[in-house]
Amino acid sequence: MSNKENYIKAFVEALEVAEDSVEQLEYQSVAAWDSVGHMSLIAAIEDTFDIMMDTDDIIELDSFKKGMEILSENYGIEF
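Request: output the structure for the sequence above.
Response:
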């Protein structure tokens, strides 16, 4: 699986959303992406890519797209 496919899978599993809706997601745009869902998502992303995200990055990750930017710029994950 590609990094993008793994990233999508983390969203689908953590937030229990349909794969085809993931790329448009933003924080609190679905009921599951609340503060608790956010931490589940972060855990899924960290497990998927074997990283430990900084607090600032966790706070800034407020959309699918922003998450890709953070992972690419700060953790060297290519999409």
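The chain has a mean pLDDT of 97.
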